[in-house]
Amino acid sequence: MPDPLKTVGSGYIKRWSGALLQKLREINHDRTLLVNAGVCFCVIAMLGLGNLFCSFVLHTDMSYLMPWLLVGVISYFFLPSLILWIATGHPS
Hints:
78% helix; mainly alpha
């Protein structure tokens, strides 16, 4: 009896990786690395302004959230292009 993982595995993995790469391309929206860096800088600047607004106007301390938000923003802009670059050879 043939091993079911060997007969189904390669086609399943190929379809799954193709779907994953397609979803990463949709997330990245064909942005280049320079565009990702510029947009990431703008979002980080807006996070800083929001933190200043919370600190001086609302008198709340949001500094404990800033490292988590920065990691999330950087991951959103640079992880899809990094994975695409490793998998396909070009980041967009």
